[in-house]
Amino acid sequence: MLVMGEVHTGLLQNSGEVAASTCRRLLGLLAGQTVRVSRRPIVHAVSPDRLTGVDCRLPSASQSRVRGVGTVLTRCSITGGRVVQGSSYVRIVRAAVDRRLPWSHYLARPGVMEVLGKAKPRDLSDGFTDDLPGDRLSGASAGRTRPDPARPDPARGDRGPGWSGSAPLDLGAISGRFVDLVQSSPLLDRRAPFKIPRTRLRWVAESASESGAPAIRFTLHNDQLRTLRLVHDGEFTPAVAELCEDLALHDWLLTTLLVIVERALTGGAPGPEAVAKLTPAVDHLLHLWMPAARVDETLTPLWESLERYPGFTRQWQSLVDRIRDQISVNMLTLLIRKGGW
Amino acid sequence: MLVFAISDKGGTGRSVTSTNIAYRHALQGNDACYLDFDFGSPTAGAIFSVSSVARGTRAGGLHEYLRGELTEPQRIDVWAESDREGLRVKPPGAGRLVLLPGSEGGGELSTVDDEMANRCVQLFSRLEEEFDLCVVDVSAGRSFTAEMILQATVRLPAVPFRWLVYHRWTRQHIIAADGLVNGADGLLDVGARFGHDPEVLRERIRFVRTAVLESEAAELVGLRDEQRAWLSAYDGELRELAGRHGVGRTAMLGKVPLDPILQWREQLISDEDVLATKIANAETAAAFEDLAKKIMDDSAWEGL
Ligand SMILES: Nc1ncnc2c1ncn2[C@@H]1O[C@H](COP(=O)(O)OP(=O)(O)OP(=O)(O)O)[C@@H](O)[C@H]1O
Ligand SMILES: [Mg+2]
Questions:
Q1: Considering only alpha carbons, which residue of chain A is nearest residue B96?
Q2: How far is residue B88's CA from residue A124's CA, in Å, rounded to a whole number?
Q3: Of B275, B165, B145, nearest to B209 (Cα)?
Q4: Are residues A153 and A70 in the same domain?
Q5: C-beta atoms of B130 and A143 within 8 A
Q6: pTM for the full model?
Q7: Can you give the residue range of the structural domain that contains A330?
Q8: Domain identity same for A233 and A323
Q9: Measured between alpha carbons, how far is B183 from B164 in angstroms, rounded to an integer?
Q10: In a domain? residue A7
Q11: What is the pLDDT of residues B262-304, one digit of tens each?
Q12: Residues B87-138 pLDDT 10s
C-alpha cells in the first residue's frame, strides 16, 4: 500500500572525526552482528536492521481509528565518522483477516505492518506527513509510544507487544532512541566541535503503479522538521529508504551550515571572531557533501529533480563560497596589517 | 553545559535570576534553554512572559515527559512566543532561547524510579547536543527532583554540569545554603550515595547571593547614620559567618543587587528596561550578564 519512515540526523558527539573501526564498534553495540562499512566515496557504516514490534493506531488525516500490527525496521549509520543517523520505516499492507494473528506471523514479515480493517492509503499518508507533532515549535508532542531498544526487544519475544490503545505509531521515537544509544557510547568523548540540533525527516513512499508518475516533494516545516513524499517506479525496495537517508543527511548538512554561517556573520562585524566560528564547518563538514553517492541508479532522477528545485547543491555551494571568501579576506587583512604583503 | 539552579529556601530569587542568566546567555550569542523542573510551581512561563504557559503547560510538560507519557516534552521559542514586544524579535547575533515548561498542576515528584532517571538522562543528553547552556530550575530544598538529577548526572560522565546554590544575604539563608550543600542529605551527601566523588562534585557547586543591598545602594540614601553604621557592621558579621560556612567569597560565583522592579514583578531585565524606560538598574542587568559569562568560564570555576 505505502511505506512510512522517519530519519533522525545529528552530529556525532565527538571532538574529532571517528575512525571506521570505531564506527564499527559504535554500531555493533546495537545488535552485535556485522556492521557494513563502505569506504568509497566516503566512509559510511551501517548497523544491521533491528526490529521493534508494534501494535498501535496508525496516523490518519480523517482521524479514523486504524489499527496496525507488525514490526518496524530500524538501522543506524555513521557517515564520514561525523554524522549519525537513525532510520526507521515500515511497509503498510492490508491484513488478510481482521484480527491480530499469532506473533510468529508478523515475525516472518520483518518491516511489515498489517492494517486491520479499512484504511485508505491517502488518508494514512496525509495523516503521517500533515499531522506533525512538533510542527509548531510549541505544539505538544503527540508521540506517546515509548519503544526502548535497550530493553528486551518485544519483536523477538513470541508473544509480541500488547495493543497500545490510542498511542499512535511513532517512528521518530524509535529512530531517536537509536541515535541516543550511539551518542551515549563511552567510545565518544562528547566534546563535539559545535552545538547543533538534530533534524527529522518524515517520509512516505508510494509505488507509481498505484499513485501515478514518479515524483518527489520536499517540505520544510520548521527548523528541525521536514517531510518528503515520493512516488517511485516499481516495487518498494530498501533503496528507497536509502534515498531518504541520503536526502536527510544532505538536508542536515545544509541546515547546519546555514546555522553556522548565521551565527558567524550576523550581529558582529566580520573579522577574526567570525572566522573562528566558521572554521569548525571547514574542518568537519565541507568534505561530507556527496549527494546521491549511494543512491540506486533507478532513483537518481528523483534526487536530480530536487537539485533543480529547491536546489540543494546550489545553495550549499554558495554557502561554501561565502565561507571561503570570509576566510581569505580575513587572512589578507591580517597579512596586510602585519606588513607582510 | 547543564546548570542546575537550587536553593534551600523558597522565594530566594532562584527562578528570576536563572531565567535572566539564560536570557543574557542567549543575547551573548549562545543557544540557551531553560527547563522548569520546579514541578510544584512551574512559573518560568510567567517570567519569560509567555502567558499561555504562565503556570506550566496543560499538555506536553516536563512532568508528563518524565512519567513516560510522551516521547518529547513541549518546547517554546521565547523569541517567537513571548507576549512582551521587546522580547518577540530575536536580536541580531543572539542565540536561541527555548523554554521547556513544567506541567500545570503537576505537583512535586513523590518518588524517583529508574525509568524516570533514564528519561532524565535522555533529555539532558539530547539537549546538551544542541544547546550551549541548559539551565534547570530544580526547586527549593531537598527533593526527589534534586535526587533524580544527581542520579542522572552520574550516568552522563562526559557531560559537563554545574550547580548554582542561591541564597539571600541573611544569617538564616547563609546557614541554610551551607546545609543544603554540606549537611546531612545535602547535595554532597546524596551525590556520594549515587556515585559522585564528593570532592569533584564540590568543585562544581558555587553560590549566588540574590537581592543584595550594597552599602552604596540608592535605597540606603534615606537611612540615618546609626542605621547605616549598624548595616555596615552587620554586613561584616555576615561575611565572617559566610566564610565559616563555606559560603564565602571564594565559593561565590556572583551576586545580584536588590532591584526595586524585581521586588514588584518577576521578569527578565532587558537593556530597554535599563536604557530606555529606565525602570531597572544598570547594575542588575550587569550582574546577570556577568553571571551568564562566568557560568561557562572555567577560570571562574578553578579549585577553591
Ligand atoms: N535581585 C532581586 N531584587 C529584588 N527582588 C528580587 C530579586 N530577585 C528576585 N526577587 C524577587 O523575589 C521573589 C522571589 O523570587 P523567585 O520567584 O525568583 O524565587 P524562587 O527562589 O524561584 O522562589 P520559589 O522557591 O517560590 O520558586 C520574587 O518576587 C522576585 O521578583
Ligand atoms: Mg521559582
A1: A263
A2: 37
A3: B165
A4: yes
A5: no
A6: 0.93
A7: 253-337
A8: no
A9: 16
A10: yes
A11: 999 999 999 999 999 999 999 999 999 999 999 999 999 987 6
A12: 998 998 999 999 999 999 888 999 999 999 999 999 999 999 999 999 999 9
- For residue B110, give its domain range: 2-302
Number of domains in chain B: 1
As a whole number, mean pLDDT of residues A198-220 equals 93
CB contact under 8 A, B129 and A192: yes
H/E element, A88: strand A83-94
* Site from A52, A137, A138 to mutate, B interface, most B CB atoms within 10 angstroms: A138
Q: What is the pLDDT of residues A73-123, one digit of tens each?
A: 999 999 999 999 999 999 999 999 999 999 999 999 999 999 998 899 999
Report the phi/psi class of residue B205: left, alpha or beta, with left for phi > 0 and alpha for psi in -120 to 50: beta
Q: Which residues of A touch B (CB under 8 A)?
A: 10-11, 13, 133-134, 137-141, 143-146, 170, 172-173, 176-177, 180, 183-184, 186, 188-192, 195-198, 263, 266-268
- For residue B182, give the CATH number of its domain: 3.40.50.300
Claim to verify: residue A269 and residue A166 sit in the same structural domain: no
Q: According to the model, what pLDDT value does residue B214 have?
A: 82
Residue A14 shares a structural domain with residue A139:
yes
Q: Is the model's pLDDT at A146 over the cut of 60?
A: no
Four-point Cα dihedral B268, B274, B278, B282, nearest 10: 110
| Of residues A65, A93, A89, the one with CA closest to residue A166 | A65
Contact between B93 and A266 using a beta-carbon 8 Å cutoff: yes
Specify whether A163 is located in the same domain as A66. yes
Instruction: List pocket residues of ligand 1, CB cut-off 6 Å.
Output: B 7, 10-17, 38, 41, 140, 210-211, 256, 258-259, 262-263, 266
Average of per-residue pLDDT across B145-163: 97
Mean pLDDT of B28-51: 96
| Complex ipTM tops 0.90 | yes
pLDDT at residue A30, rounded to an integer: 64
Ligand (nearest to CA of B140): 1
What's the longest Cα–Cα distance across chain A? 83
Cβ A173–B71 below 8 Å, yes or no?
yes
Quickly state the pLDDT bin for A158 (edges 50, 70, 90): low
Residue A136 is assigned to a structural domain of this protein: yes
**Structural contact between residues A198 and B130, judged by C-beta atoms closer than 8 angstroms:** yes
Coil/strand/helix, residue B6: strand
**Atom number of ligand 1 nearest to Cα B266:** 31
In B, residues 208-247, which contact A (CB 8 Å cutoff)?
none
Give domain status of residue A248, yes or no: no
Chain A residues with CB inside 8 Å of B156's CB?
184
Are A26 and A70 members of one domain?
Answer: yes
Number of domains in chain A: 2
CB proximity B129 to A under 8 Å: yes
Number of H helices, E strands in chain A: 9, 10
**Is A19 in the same domain as A127?**
yes
A71: left (phi over 0), alpha (psi -120 to 50) or beta: beta
Among B263, B267, B289, name the best residue to mutate to test ligand 1's pocket (greatest count of ligand atoms within 8 A of Cβ).
B263
